[in-house]
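Continuing the batch. This is chain 6 of the set; chains 1 through 5 are on the previous pages. Same settings as before, nothing changed between runs. Recording input and output for traceability.
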Amino acid sequence: MGKIGYHTAASGVISYQLAMDITANNLANVNTNGFKASRPSFADLIYTERNNNNEETQFGHGVRVQKTDMMFEQSQLRESGRELDFAALDEGFFAVLTPEGNISYTKDGAFYMSQNAEGVWELCNEYGAYVLDYDGNRIEIPFVEGTTDIDSAALAEKVGVYTFENPYGLDQIGDNYFAATASSGEAVSNPEARKKQKWLEASSTNIANEMSKVIEYQRAFQLNVNMVKTHDQLEDIINNLRN
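Output for chain 6:
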């Protein structure tokens, strides 16, 4: 007896386990600022033809997770009232210079003040990465002359927003960062891109949608597991009959 059914069902078990992992990651980041949820895309595997009573019959060989798509729809905005918080609207990103010397991009605009060795206050994020302006330079915090109050309007003008020709081609690299790829194209500073001070962009995870996906994937996973068990039992029956 062939094992096409066994391997077909096994591919379903593996694929739906991966889909559950993706959904779990979306739900885990429901409160992560600027997080963009991912969605798995499935594809069928190869087909073979068998001559059955002089008629060609096609047999499929299962399923796989072909790729994951990021959902870049504008998430809900939350007002924080904090002048160091920013939201990059639509498909805009903030650029940061990481401590390792790499330039990464993020939708998380919860920024802080950091004092360098020269005593200058600069804008950074929680990981110590420096926020960049439209020219790719680190941002010095502007203060109202003669005071220690931040000049909010001047700061807002400095914070750079960058866009990509194809943001769906960006690579997620952890710490809420994205990296440019050949598919996304190079980042372009875009003074016309919208941003909002004293607001933060929420996660794009939709709990209701994700929970419905959990049910869907779990049912499909269980059905494929049952198919694996059934095929294994049939193999045992046939082997016992042969003996």
